[in-house]
Amino acid sequence: MAWGAPGMSIRTPAARRYIRIHLALSVIYILLVFLASWFIPDDAPPTPGVVAFALLPGMVVLGWIWNMGRLLVTMEDEYLRMLEVRKMLWATAITLSICGGWGLVELFATVPRLPVFFVFPIWCLGLAVGQLINRLTLGDGGTCA
Amino acid sequence: MNNRLRVLRAEQGWSQQDLAERLGVSRQSVNAIETGRYDPSLPLAFKIADVFGLTIEAIFLKDGGSE
Fold it and tell me: How many angstroms separate the CA atoms of B27 and B18, rounded?
């Protein structure tokens, strides 16, 4: 879920704080996914304990989303904030297009199902696309991607 | 929207970074406004006008207006 290469983006205090929290949450996420994979067998029944354990990494996803919202609220520079909002709109448009389009294909044809797990990673990839579009159309990518 | 920001900044002998620090925004913001890629909000336009001691309409011009 890394948001891009250092040196290519604009580092404001809000952006630096965002990246610190994002990296910390990423470490926790990897740890929790590793632990869940280690302790929960592939054919485990959906008991409350298993569901709760599986949802722990989901709490980190909520943390990522909260951190992004906090970035928008705390950014004082309106131009940089606009760049971030544009990236998120592109990411949302790409995610909805892929999921909506593929969902229809699943409905009418025998094709592999797209696991819901991939929705958030697709959105994060959409952020990278949004940054590229910002760079190509406005000359600046944004603060964090 | 056109603007006279680059000319006014040059008259003061300020770099984009100098003006950005006076406005409390990034250098990228100043560059985007100067090149017409971004129109500032009204509060930022007032801040820019204050920095130069001018009115907003003396800095920002309607599309088709000249410097």
Answer: 8
Look up the pTM and report it: 0.81
ipTM for the predicted complex: 0.88
* Phi/psi of residue A67, nearest 5 degrees: -65, -40
What 3-state DSSP class applies to B40?
A: coil
Beta carbons of A76 and B40 less than 8 Å apart:
no
CB-defined contacts A:B, below 8 A: 33
Per-residue pLDDT tens for B18-52? Answer: 999 999 999 999 999 999 999 999 999 999 999 99
The phi, psi pair for B61, rounded to 5°, reads: -120, 150
* Nearest-by-Cβ selection for A140 from B28, B33, B40: B28
b/e per residue A24-37 (b: at least 16 CB within 10 A): ebeeebeebeeeee
Partnered with residue B3 across adjacent β-strands are B60
* Cα A99 to Cα A13: distance, rounded to the nearest angstrom: 35
Mean pLDDT over each residue of chain A, to the nearest integer? 87
Are residues A32 and A56 in contact, defined by beta-carbon separation less than 8 angstroms?
Answer: yes
Shortest CA distance from B28: residue in chain A: A140
